Amino acid sequence: MFRSLILAAVLLASAPLVANAGEITLLPSVKLQIGDRDNYGNYWDGGGWRDRDYWRRHYEWRDNRWRHHDKRLASRLG
């Protein structure tokens, strides 16, 4: 019973951290923001700003991960 009370207290204490998962404070002056967007709605991917449909145009979800479109297959089919 004591373990379940401790587990409940830990879960309640960590609820604000889970609710604010889009921004993580690493140090008082350093924040990590997941899914950063500019004023035009473009997403930052670590190398440049990408529009909303970039991933759909260049990648496809296959074998449980994002992969480049197979251009050879597309040329054979089209």
Strand content: 25-35%
Could you spell the SSE succession in H and E letters? HEEEEHEEH
- The helix content, as a percent range, equals 25-40%
Q: Major sheet: order of its strands?
A: 1-2
Count of separate structural domains:
1
Keywords: Signal
Pfam families: DUF2502 (PF10697)
Signal peptide: 1-21
Protein name: Protein of uncharacterized function (DUF2502)
What does this structure look like?
With 78 residues, the protein is an alpha+beta fold. 38% of the residues lie in helices and 27% in strands. The chain has one domain. The strands form 3 sheets. A two-stranded antiparallel sheet has the order 1-2. The chain has a two-stranded antiparallel sheet with strand order 3-4. Strand 5 and strand 6 form a beta hairpin. The longest helix has 18 residues.
Quick structural gist:
The chain is built from three helices and six strands; from the N terminus they run αββββαββα. By secondary structure, it is α+β, with helices and mostly antiparallel strands.
List the helices and strands and how they pair.
Layout (H helix, E strand, L loop, with lengths): L1 H18 L3 E5 L2 E4 L9 E2 L4 E2 L3 H5 E4 L2 E4 L2 H7 L1
Pfam families: DUF2502
Protein name: Protein of uncharacterized function (DUF2502)
InterPro entries: DUF2502
What keyword list fits this structure?
single chain, 78 residues, alpha+beta, two-stranded antiparallel ribbon, 6 strands, flat
